[in-house]
Amino acid sequence: MLDSIHMGRHDGSSEEDERVRRSDRERGHRGSNTRVTADKPSDDRQKSRSESERKQEGLLKRDWSDSQRDKLRNEEKSEVAKPKLPELNPSDSNAMALGKTGGVYIPPFKLARMMNEVEDKSSVEYQRLTWDALRKSINGLVNKVNASNIKNIIPELFAENLIRGRGLFCRSCMKSQMASPGFTDVFAALVAVINAKFPEVAELLLKRVVLQLKRAYKRNDKPQLLAAVKFIAHLVNQQVAEEIIALELVSLLLETPTDDSVEVAVGFVTECGAILQDLTPKGLHGIFERFRGILHEGDIDKRVQYLIEGLFAIRKAKFQGHPAVRPELDLVEEKYSHDVSLNDKISPDTSLDVFKPDPDFIENEKKYEALKKELLGEDESEDEDGSDASSEEDGSDEEEDEEQMRIRDETETNLVNLRRTIYLTIMSSVDFEEAGHKLLKIKLEPGQEMELCIMLLECCSQERTYLRYYGLLGQRFCMINKIHQENFEKCFVQQYSMIHRLETNKLRNVAKFFAHLLGTDTLPWHVLAYIRLTEEDTTSSSRIFIKILFQELSEHLGIRLLNERLQDPTMQESLESIFPKDNPKNTRFAINFFTSIGLGGITESLREYLKNMPRLIMQQQKQVAESESSSGSDSSESDSDTDSSSSSSSDESDREKRKRRRRA
């Protein structure tokens, strides 16, 4: 019995071995056939596949183990030959060469050469090349925009055909914003500028963002929902979208509050709460009442409750730190808002993202060129036409313009760096000699010597009390070079003309600085001619300046030496404005002023002049009268002489007549 059982197993195993060998032979023949017919048409491949499937079904009907079936299937799959793909050649008109992004990568120089080689500008091939170039240009500009270069990116973006590529622009903005939500306000500012000129582009973008928001909300896709909500918030801040969509969005999120929906709503209100406070204060009040109700219910997580409390604190601070629009991104004055609701049926117009031949391609391009000239001006459009022509003369002119632009520095960076160097040198020196030695080593270009004097005076005025260090340093420079002396004269005139702008402490330091230069004779005294000491020509600040100036001079020189210096005949012309003698009123004002500040000793000559003024006036009047009388006597004498001469001539004529009569 056992032997018969063993014999049965042995016979069964031998039958299975024969079947395996037979299948191996068939597989070998089938593999050779597939290797030979790999390059044959697809009908042979379908026949071979159908035969293999029939054989596989026949084998599976037999009583095989699962492991052997799986092994056989794997071997058949691995040995099926793959069809050879056609070569990807962009010049061929095959469908395999054009992928999802418009084809294989073509270098820019090769793409430009291909566009130049196309003679028919209205052909489909040329339109596809321009479409690819437009897509790459828009993607590049949108990807590199930020707050610092947005003003430079906008003209370049308007230079592209945004009407034709509005779908490309919207898709690029949404992808870039999704990838970097931190730059959402920048993208919103860019869309606001585009909205001012092409409202249909901004409306298309807004519709697509709203549609993205709806899809993310239905799918519970939180990252995509956060990105869409933030984009809508900044579009509301830029007033591209009406504020009604913000209220609808918050009511949708808080209708059935969950931890995630409340968190998204808090972030949204934080972003656009400042603009809602200005546009719809009642609507914002209703939103916060709903937040307060959610807090009282206490059904949400503690973390989200803390977020709501933080939002109330931000509202109490009037949204400080969360402005609606940053100053550098407020680029549009006339704003146009689009009324798009969450309840509207929105069509994304995805067909605008795909290339389509345009029968009126050349006409539309010419229309946009004319529109571009209106937006950017004729100069920029002419420059772009010249660059497209790529002539050698235009290239050389552009290089010269670039060189001129490089030379011209309107930011005054070099001047700021020079002032910083002078300031640090003055502040880091131990004494005036070291400071003077270091400052003389600084290489100054012609015309920059004035900056040295201005910075020295600025540093002196910024001190709490006057330091003799600055006066000695200014004295050193005046003695070294006459140019610095002339510059300090100009500084004196400028400071006195703007003395009313200085604080009392700065005014005192400046007056003591110039008093030191005058007392050491490094600054000529004829600069005092600019000061006119009258009640009408002085202010409280200028009188304080004159007071401190002369008090410092008296302390430095002494009252006797100061008086001698003021009585010097060579200086009388320069001091006529300080010690006026043209009017008794001005003379009395100058005497009273110097007497009130304790320097009445320098007004002795002015007092004597005021005492002798009536006598001088009488003498002047007498001289005037005498001159008038002398002129009158001279005229009478001349009249008498003329009369006598005329009478004598008449007598002589009478005598001659008488003699003639007698002779007759």
From TrEMBL:
Protein name listed in UniProt: MI domain-containing protein
Report residue spans for region: Disordered. Answer: 1-96, 375-410, 620-664
Q: Which family does it belong to?
A: Belongs to the CWC22 family.
Supply the source organism for this entry. Answer: Brassica napus
**Lineage, broadest ranks:** Eukaryota, Viridiplantae, Streptophyta, Embryophyta, Tracheophyta
Spell out the Gene3D superfamilies in the cross-references. Answer: 1.25.40.180
Q: Residues in domain MI?
A: 417-533
Q: Does the keyword Repeat apply?
A: no
Q: Which domain of life is it from?
A: Eukaryota
